[in-house]
Write a sequence for this structure.
């Protein structure tokens, strides 16, 4: 009886622990669109005026009917180098949060860890090859996508 | 033919078969726009075209706004060039493998490459039409990083949420508006929220005119920065 009670508690606790994760995967799209309305206007102008630069836009913003008060340079060099720290770097480096972890972790990786990684790759290749041989020799057809 | 030769031939056949499938999608290029609002209220816009070839392993951004310049990311460095002259170069490591371009072309986008990092899946749940998996850093790495949540819709990655060690959300990314380009599924919109102690940042990246396996823009796919 006591064990069942403990089991129920564990199940209830783990359910509570993992419940509600879906709420992390939503955001207010209308609010974002509204927040980016000015940038979207600039974007549309830039795309319809090839070769125009930021300095030209800022100089003639009134004539173009654009609000450039908060618009700052986002050249590759400024985004990627001037504010260089790993956080900013990962932020600037196009959708690469995992890369940050890998970089950070890679810095700390020991030769043993790297060695283990390659051993794992070799084992994986070996198991895969044996599996393919068994499948082919047994006459089973498989499709790879 | 003896058995040993048969096995060798068989292994060669299997290897070539796998290489063929791995190379099905080798190149990707797209118009790219990045709109960003940083923690200080600044607005930033970047417009250009991006090129990536999994064999050359370098991402080339041909940027037209705010200024005309090239940005090249490879396994060892990030380099910017203006008028074909190097302006800046910084060392970098393993950023190419975990870029969205590499992940998509290597068919690793489904888990955003998490399964190839020191994270291990610890829980999977179905919630509100999403498959949500919880990823925890493996022992030895838990001092540095927190958990990650990954959600999928229709077997495609939809969102990633990363937490710090105190279980506070520090980043969210959403991958939306998927398009199918010759069989390659690719998100046309990525919205990234970054939460920091001194403010939040939002970045929206959009891709248009996506082309797969274009072999006519060789200059950008295999841009050489030697002697620049």
């Amino acid at each position: 009886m006591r064990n069942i009670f403990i089991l129920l508690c564990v199940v209830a606790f783990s359910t509570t622990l993992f419940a509600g994760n879906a709420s992390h995967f939503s955001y207010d799209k209308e609010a974002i669109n509204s927040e980016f309305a000015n940038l979207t206007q600039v974007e549309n102008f830039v795309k319809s005026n090839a070769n125009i630069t930021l300095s030209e836009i800022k100089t003639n913003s009134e004539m173009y009917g654009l609000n450039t008060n908060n618009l700052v340079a986002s050249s590759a060099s400024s985004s990627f180098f001037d504010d260089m720290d790993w956080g900013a770097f990962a932020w600037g480096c196009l959708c690469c949060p995992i890369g940050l972890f890998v970089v950070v972790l890679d810095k700390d990786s020991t030769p043993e860890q790297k060695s283990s990684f390659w051993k794992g790759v070799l084992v994986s290749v070996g198991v895969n090859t044996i599996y393919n041989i068994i499948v082919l020799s047994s006459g089973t057809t498989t499709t790879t996508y | 033919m003896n058995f040993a030769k048969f096995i060798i031939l068989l292994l060669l056949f299997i290897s070539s078969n796998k290489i063929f499938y791995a190379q099905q999608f080798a190149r990707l290029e797209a118009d790219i726009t990045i709109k960003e609002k940083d923690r200080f209220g600044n607005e930033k816009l970047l417009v250009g075209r991006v090129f990536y070839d999994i064999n050359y392993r370098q991402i080339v951004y041909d940027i037209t706004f705010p200024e005309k310049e090239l940005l090249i990311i490879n396994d060892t460095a990030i380099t910017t060039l203006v008028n074909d002259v190097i302006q800046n170069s910084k060392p970098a490591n393993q950023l190419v493998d975990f870029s969205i371009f590499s992940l998509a072309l290597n068919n690793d986008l489904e888990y955003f490459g998490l399964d190839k990092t020191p994270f291990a899946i610890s829980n999977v749940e179905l919630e509100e039409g999403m498959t949500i998996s919880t990823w925890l850093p493996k022992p030895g790495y838990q001092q540095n990083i927190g958990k990650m949540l990954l959600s999928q819709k229709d077997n495609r990655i939809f969102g990633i949420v990363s937490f710090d060690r105190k279980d506070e959300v520090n980043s969210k990314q959403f991958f939306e508006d998927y398009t199918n380009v010759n069989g390659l599924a690719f998100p046309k919109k990525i919205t990234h929220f970054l939460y920091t102690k001194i403010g939040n940042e939002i970045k929206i990246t959009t891709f248009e005119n996506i082309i797969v396996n274009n072999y006519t823009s060789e200059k950008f796919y295999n841009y050489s920065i030697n002697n620049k």
